Structures are given as C-alpha cells and as structure tokens.
TrEMBL record:
Its main location: plastid. Plant lipoxygenase may be involved in a number of diverse aspects of plant physiology including growth and development, pest resistance, and senescence or responses to wounding. Residues 235-928 form the Lipoxygenase domain. It is found in: Plastid, Chloroplast. Residues 101-232 form the PLAT domain. The lineage of its organism: Eukaryota, Viridiplantae, Streptophyta, Embryophyta, Tracheophyta. It comes from Tetracentron sinense (Spur-leaf). GO terms for biological process: fatty acid biosynthetic process; lipid oxidation; oxylipin biosynthetic process. Its EC number is 1.13.11.-. Pfam families: Lipoxygenase, PLAT. Residues 282-317 have a biased composition (Basic and acidic residues). GO terms for molecular function: metal ion binding; oxidoreductase activity, acting on single donors with incorporation of molecular oxygen, incorporation of two atoms of oxygen. InterPro entries: LipOase (IPR000907), LipOase_C (IPR013819), LipOase_C_sf (IPR036226), LipOase_CS (IPR020834), LipOase_Fe_BS (IPR020833), LipOase_plant (IPR001246), Lipoxy_PLAT/LH2 (IPR042057), Lipoxygenase_dom_3 (IPR027433). Belongs to the lipoxygenase family. This is Lipoxygenase.
C-alpha cells in the first residue's frame, strides 16, 4: 500500500474565511474567497488568543455558520505566561472541529529568544499581547463549488512558557466541518527577530494528530512580509499533490529558486549556483588573486550563489566576506552545543591559529629534534592565550589539554591514537603500506595491470613516458618469489600513482618559497598473508627551466644511506598522498561535489516530496561547512595553501582532478573498487564483488554499509514508485536530476556516463551513491584525520626540501650523510605549518554531541508511514549488525591489516560513535 494520500473530505459548505493586511502579503492570495474583513485586520487583538476565532482578524462569519460571541478574560501568571480563559464558552456549529495547535520554538543564541538586541523588549510585549505568531491552517482541498483554494483558518498563537531550550506557543482553532484535510500551515512571525520553529502539532481532528515538522528559521515579517509555509508530514509525489496545495507547492519552490539577481541576505532561503570565484582576494594583495574555478578552463562543481559585489581588480571574482551567505536553514542552528564542531573549527581558524602565528615568529622554523615534536603532546608549547575567544573558550578546552592562567599559556595536544598505541609505527614500512588499505586514504591504491608503467603526458614536454621502475627492480625486490609477469598475472602488484597529476605542477610549485614537488609512483607487493610490502618509490622532476629530467628509484635496502633516502622518499610520497587525500578524496569528492545535489534538491523537490524527505538528513550542515571552508580553509592564503605542498596551486589541482577523474558513476563504492582493480564482479561473492585483496578493511566494511544503504533506499523508492512510469513522469524528480547534471555539474553536463533516471533501479542507484558519498565515503576519509595525521611525521602535508640526491651541493650531501635525521626534519613541515594543521585536523576529526548518525534517528515523516517505518527499522537493525561485524573483524587475528600489535583497529565505518575524536561513527551528512 502506498502511503500518504490525502483523503478527500466532503466539501459541502464554503469555509470560514480569512483575509489579509496590506502589509502582510500572504503566500499567494488571488484564488482566495473574496469577502473582505479589512476592518478586523486593522484592529489590535485584545488580550486574548483564546478559543476559536472570536477575537481574531478573521472575517465575519458566513451566514450559514452560527456562532455566538465569546467573552474572554486574561490572567497573568508567573513567568509571563498568559492564559486565556473563556468565561462562557459557546460552541460554533455542531459540526465544527475544535483544534489545538502547539508550536515548539527552539531557544537560540541569535534568534528571538536571545537576550541580546534592542527589539527584545518590543517582542516580549508582542508576546504578552498575543500578537507575535500568526498561524493559518491551509486546506488540502479546493472549494468544490468555486474550484478555488479555501480560505485559511487563522489564529494568533499565545506564548505559554519556556522549558529548558524550548518555548511553546498555543493556538485554538475552530475548523469548519467541510474544511477537509489540513495540508499546510502558514506562519507569520511578528517578532522583530527570526525564530527557529521545530514543529507544530495539531490535535483534535477525528483522524488523529496532524504533525508538521519544521526545523526551520522563520524570518521576521519586518524583514520579509512573505509568510512561511510548512506542509504537513505527509509526503506526496507531484502527481498526487492534493488540489488545494498544488499552487503552494510550486510557489514555495519559486521562492527557494529566487531570481538569480542581487546579494543574498542572511534571512533568505534562496538556493542558486555560482562558480568558485571567491577564493582569491585580488583587492587585498595581488598575490592573493586566484583563478575562477568552474568553466572551460578550470572545470569544477558549482557552489551556492551569494551575489556579492565583484572585486575591483578582477570583475570575474566575487569580493570576500567574513560572513558567507548560506540559505538560512543550512546554517547551524546556534542552539547551545548544537554547533559544537563548526563553532570549534571557526574558533580555531579565527582565534587559535593567529595565536600560533604570533608565538612562532619564524615561519620557516622546523622542528630541531624529534623530541620537540613529542613535546607538543607531552609537555605542551608556550602560546599566548588567544584573544577574543569569548564563548569559544569553553569549546576549545577539549581541543587543547590546558590553557594555564597567567603569563604565557601552555598549549598541549592530545596524543593521536596511532602514536599512543605504537610510537614507532609511523617509521615502519608495514604501517606505510597498511594505511593504503585501512588508513586515512584508502581510495588511491590501485592494481597494476600493465607493464611497463607509462605516463600519459606528452614525452616531449615531460620526458620519457616509461617509468624508471624496471622489471629487474621489481624482481629483485620480491626476491625471486615469482617473476614480474607472474606477479601481474596473479594480481600481486599495486601502485600509488601520483605521477601524471603532479608532474605538470612541479616547476610551478617549486617557484613558491618553502615547498617542493615531484611526480611519484610507489609500488607494493601483496604477500601471502594479505599485507602489502612497499617495493620501490620513483620520484620524478620533469625537464624544464633549462634543467633536464631528474628521476630516481628508491628501494629499502640494507645499507644506511639507502635506508635514509628511502625514508625521505616515503616522506615525499606521504605528502603527495596527504595532499591528494585532502584536496581530491576529501574536499572535491565529498564536500564540493555534493553541494550541487543539495542546491538542486531544494530548488526542484518540494519539501513534501518523498525523495526530498529521504535526502534531507543527508544534507545537514554541508553547505555551512563548505562556506566556512571557502572563507578560511581553501581560500587564497588559507590553511590548505600555506600548509600543503602544492601551495597556491592546491585548488587548481583539485580542478584538474575533477576534470580528469571525477565521474558520478564511479562515486558508487562498487564501481570505484572495480575501476581501481581492487574488486571484480562475482555473482557468488558477498555483495556480488570479489575483492582483489581479501583483507581490505575499508572495502570490507564499506561494501556492507553500501549494501545496507542500498536496501533501505530500494525499499523506500519502491514504495513510492511502484511503477517505473511514475519515475519518468515525476517532473520534480526529473528536474532535480537534470539540474544536478546541467547546472550543479555544468562542466560535465555532456558526459556520457551520467546515469539515466527511468526506473526504480536507476533512482535507487543514484540515491544510494549520493547517500554513500556523504555518509560512508566522507566518514572514512574524515574522522581518522587526527588519528593518522595528528602526528605529522606519519603524514606530512608538505615536504620543503628536495631529495639530497637531486643535484645537491657538496655541503648539502655531506650534511645529509652527517645528520640524516636533520635532513628529514628539515624536509617536514615547519613548526607553524605542523601545529596549525594539527589543530585543524583535531577539530575536523571531532564528532559534536548533536551528531546524527546513519540509521539512528527516524525522520518524523518516515514514522508516519508504516511501510517506510518498518523499512527504516530493518535498515537500523542491519547497521547494528554491522557494528558487531566490524568488532569481530577487528578481533580476528587473521586479518592483519586491522589486527596486530600496536595497530589502530579499523573502526572508521562503525556507524555510531560517542562525541569527540573517536575514529568511528558515520554521520548522516558531511557536517564537518
Ligand atoms: Fe569533512
């Protein structure tokens, strides 16, 4: 049985009417019944919001409704609660229905209930007068006689009182018997400040309670006279929309789409597209000019349009702002603690990092000894107390162990779990390899299928295409266990390939002071116990700048010099992997690529569309965190540029990766694994895929999670779309998907690989892919950041010096021979780079106390449909099973990539977590 369809109530009589003021424009009025009651609207409401519509600005009763006047009185009770008492309540017609509405409003830091601001007093008075929140019930049905929308039933809601962080408002309506089902509620906020409405519950209807989940900011009518509309929790495909709601469904989407002009204001809810043209700041400094990402030259996904003025020096770039617009409901709700992670990130970026910069005057200073790195965890570093911390102070207290009072303060990091378990693991080759399968970036390792390894770049520019890693090198390193051909045939050879992507940027990057770059290839051999062993690293500098090509193959030999060169080469590869992880695997493939899905969904899918309701929990906070990233992380001169090897070319490189590599169809986990040769289709295998490396923790857990999501989505889709024709005829759905491809990912709109959207299977696959990327994919590459990169020698974000064998001066090489440890420390990030990145990674790895995990909480609209409710409960159950399965795998001595002495168990895809830096937990959405 398909869920919610509005029952058609008989509509024998015209409705109770409503009217409007000139100021407060209704959402749309032209079809409303015509009788005016202007004089009522101009009157102030007396001290009452009692039962029915007696004292309200409703129009006169129709002659066929008999209604006696009420006499009301008001008494003040403590805590400003006003209660209306009806001294001689009389009924309306016998068939009218008395309905009570309870509105729950969240107390927020910056909203109406904030104690800040001059308007608070005025708003309190409005509350006392009972004229602060106007509700109008909207019928789902048209008037059968006129064929027009029925007049709404309206009433002011009266503030009852506050409990903890919630304030309740109450309203009593008398609904005419022929009103039909309630389809929506119009809300007008007559306070001077916005308010955050959680929900509205209507009690008293014969068919039971009507729930309206809002979770939305409602603007002040003084900012925007347009009333807000909230549809009930019943979901409708466009073709099923009750007649009385059709116009409002379209109108609401028009509002959300906006007109595409003007600068967006904070209270607005407009979703629109723009290029990434706000990363640079050419007006501030010439060197902060950055290319526009998006368009033919630098293809890129689109971000949310803010409409700010262009910069003076570059009309194609948008001026920067310290407060980047996102549609109001995408912003963090500002409820105490609810914004934990992002506020913490904001405080780290805006308060702590400047403090670190102040303390470390020499920006090039590296760590003099390895013990100096350890002291960041053991003893702390002196740091001037950050200024202007305000209430961020309490948020920061968990980040740093201690800020002592008086004088300079001690700034101390938590020891990352990896180092806590095994202080020397970062040094070992086994751990270097293991992390390609179970670490922070399990997305880059690939099977070698062809030999010799060849570059696709132009050899005339970049030098010989063929790799310097020869057959002999491989066979020597695998010690004659098998030949190279047998290794390739037996799927034993794997690669981290950062050659072609980085090579064109080597000279550009080397022009930036304090950094360097190579193209790299790292080869691994799969041993009999399913672990990888690194064989060789090739570092390449192409020909250019009047220099010939330079490249060298490093192996882990037994002599001391080779060992130290190997360690240095590993540092370069780790920096490549670290940059690729952050710029491509994390930022581009999750945060950045998903913003268009959110924008398109809000522009094209009604809030009452079942697919919108399926996706909504998976969009939480993403646009806000992305806006913050544009403001302070990925911007010109921001953390990424100043701390990662590619420097100011970082974002441009992510554009190159988008151009060359990003494909929607390959974002599905099974397709991604197959593309990298890490799995093949096998109908007999679990989930129909046989893994090339059986103990591949990310893939093992990921495929289970993928399958659970797919089943839930399939159940959901098949319930709402029993026939494929319903998918093709669903105009909102088709428009959403078209817009994702043609506007959100406009630079890839003509690619042949976009999935078509015709059948239930098509829709299930598209939605599963999106939900996987924002949940499993993001969690796997986000929440291990501090564990694996908090101790930066394990994953330096930048290497600052060339290999000592690349055209060294005699002194440089002698220094390397004399103190190789110092050469490594000099190559690693500077103190300022390392500590800034550590602070940011710790916040990014943190789960806030209000985190919403996948399969954990049922959406109210799902709960109202028994079939969907049961499907979600199955989904939730399957994720609980996955928890147990992951625990069991981590305890299995045979799975050496996740079990062993000092090894961090692979828990990144365990669905649920406690708050904090836990290295587990899959949130519904990209929320940090
Ligand atoms: Fe993230």
């Amino acid at each position: 049985m398909r869920c919610p369809r509005a029952s058609k109530l008989s509509q024998r009589n015209p409705p109770l009417a409503t009217s409007r003021t000139a100021k407060a424009k209704m959402l749309k009025t032209p079809l409303h019944e015509a009788e005016s009651a202007r004089s009522f609207f101009l009157l102030h409401k007396p001290f009452l919001a009692g039962h029915g519509t007696a004292s309200l600005p409703v129009r006169r009763r129709q002659s066929f409704h008999t209604k006696k006047q009420k006499k009301s009185s008001v008494r003040f009770v403590s805590r400003n609660i006003i209660k209306a008492e009806v001294s001689s309540t009389t009924s309306t017609t016998e068939k009218s229905i008395k309905v009570k509405a309870i509105v729950t409003v969240q107390v927020t830091v910056g909203g109406f209930f904030s104690n800040l601001g001059l308007t608070r007093g005025l708003d309190d008075i409005s509350d006392l007068l009972g004229k602060s929140l106007l509700l109008e019930l909207v019928s789902a049905n048209l008037d059968p006689k006129s064929g027009r929308e029925k007049a709404t039933v309206k009433d002011y809601a009266l503030r009852l009182g506050q409990e903890e962080n919630e304030v309740k408002y109450e309203s009593d309506f008398v609904v005419p018997p022929d009103f039909g089902d309630i389809g929506a509620i119009l809300v007008e906020n007559e306070h001077h400040k916005e308010m955050f409405i959680k929900n509205i519950v209507l009690d008293g209807f014969p068919n039971g309670t009507v729930n309206v989940s809002c979770d939305s900011w409602v603007h002040s009518k003084f900012d925007n006279p347009e009333k807000r509309i909230f549809f009930t929790n019943k979901s409708y495909l466009p073709s099923d929309t009750p007649d009385g709601l059709k116009r409002m469904r379209e109108k609401e989407l028009e509002i959300l789409r906006g007109t595409g002009v003007g600068e967006r204001k904070t209270f607005e809810r407009i979703y629109d597209y723009d290029k990434y043209n706000d990363l640079g700041d050419p007006d501030s400094k010439e060197e902060l000019a950055r290319p526009v990402l998006g368009g033919k030259e630098h293809p890129y996904p689109r971000r949310c349009r803010t409409g700010r003025e262009p910069t003076v020096k570059d009309p194609l770039s948008e001026s920067r702002s310290s407060s980047v617009y996102v549609p109001r409901d995408e912003a963090f709700s500002e409820v105490k603690q609810l914004t934990f992670s992002v506020k913490a990130l904001s405080s780290v970026l805006n308060a702590l990092l400047p403090s670190i910069e102040t303390a470390l005057i020499d920006s090039d200073l590296g760590f003099p000894y390895f013990t100096a790195i350890d002291s960041l965890f053991n003893e702390g570093a002196n740091l001037p107390k950050p200024e202007n911390l305000g209430f961020f102070q309490s948020i920061l207290s968990w980040l740093v162990k201690l800020f002592k009072d008086g004088g300079d303060d001690l700034f101390q990091f938590e020891t990352p779990e990896m180092i806590d378990r095994d202080k020397f693991s970062w040094f070992r080759d086994e751990e270097f390899s293991r992390q390609t399968l179970a670490g922070l970036n399990p997305y880059s390792i690939e099977l070698v299928t062809e030999w010799p390894l060849k570059s696709k770049l132009d050899p005339k520019i970049y030098g010989p295409a063929e790799s310097a890693i020869t057959r002999e090198v491989i066979e020597q390193e695998i010690k004659g266990v098998m030949t190279l051909d047998e290794a390739i045939e037996g799927k034993k050879l794997f690669i981290l390939d950062y050659h072609d992507l980085f090579l064109p940027y080597v000279y550009k990057v080397r022009e930036i002071e304090g950094t360097t770059l190579y193209g790299s290839r790292t080869l691994f051999f799969l041993t009999h116990d399913c672990t990888l062993r690194p064989l060789a690293i090739e570092l390449t500098r192409p020909a250019g700048n009047d220099k010939p090509q330079w490249r060298q193959v490093f192996t882990s030999n037994w002599d001391a010099t080779s060992c130290w060169l190997w360690r240095l080469a590993k540092a370069h590869v780790n920096a490549h992997d670290s940059g690729y992880h952050q710029l491509v695997i994390h930022w581009l493939r999750t945060h950045c690529s998903c913003e268009p899905y959110i924008i398109a969904a809000n522009r094209q899918l009604s809030a009452m569309h079942p697919i919108y309701r399926l996706l909504l929990p998976h969009f939480r906070y993403t646009m806000e965190i992305n806006a913050l990233a544009r403001e302070s992380l990925i911007n010109g001169g921001g953390i990424i540029e100043t701390s990662f090897s590619p420097g100011k070319y970082s974002m441009e490189l992510s554009s190159v990766a988008y151009d060359q590599l990003w494909r929607f169809d390959m974002e599905a986990l099974p397709a991604d694994l197959i593309r990298r040769g890490m799995a093949v289709k096998d109908p007999k295998a679990k989930h129909g895929l046989k893994l090339t490396i059986a103990d591949y923790p990310f893939a093992n857990d990921g495929l289970d999670l993928w399958a659970a999501i797919k089943q839930w989505v399939s159940d959901y889709v098949n319930h709402y779309y029993p026939e494929p024709s319903l998918i093709e005829s669903d105009q909102e759905l088709q428009d959403w998907w078209t817009e994702v491809r043609t506007k959100g990912h406009e630079d890839k709109k003509d690619e042949p690989w976009w999935p078509v959207l015709k059948t239930q299977a098509d829709l299930t696959h598209i939605l599963t892919t999106i939900i996987w990327v924002v949940s499993g994919h993001h969690a796997a590459v986000n929440f291990g950041q501090y564990i694996y990169a908090g101790y930066f020698p394990n994953r330096p974000t930048i290497t600052r010096t060339n290999m000592p064998t690349e055209e060294p001066s005699e002194t440089e090489f002698l220094n390397f021979l004399k103190k190789p440890e110092f050469a490594l420390l000099k190559c690693f990030p500077s103190q300022i780079q390392a500590t800034k990145v550590m602070a940011v990674l710790e916040v990014l790895s943190n789960h806030s106390p209000d985190e919403e995990y996948i399969g954990d909480a049922m959406e109210p609209s799902w709960a109202e449909c028994p079939i969907i409710k049961a499907a979600f409960e199955r989904f939730s159950g399957s994720l609980k099973e996955l928890e147990g399965l992951i625990d069991a795998r981590n305890a299995d001595i045979n799975l050496k990539n996740r079990f062993g002495a000092g090894i961090v168990p692979y828990e990144l895809l365990k669905p649920v977590s406690k708050p904090g830096v836990t290295g587990m937990g899959v949130p519904n959405s990209i929320s940090i």
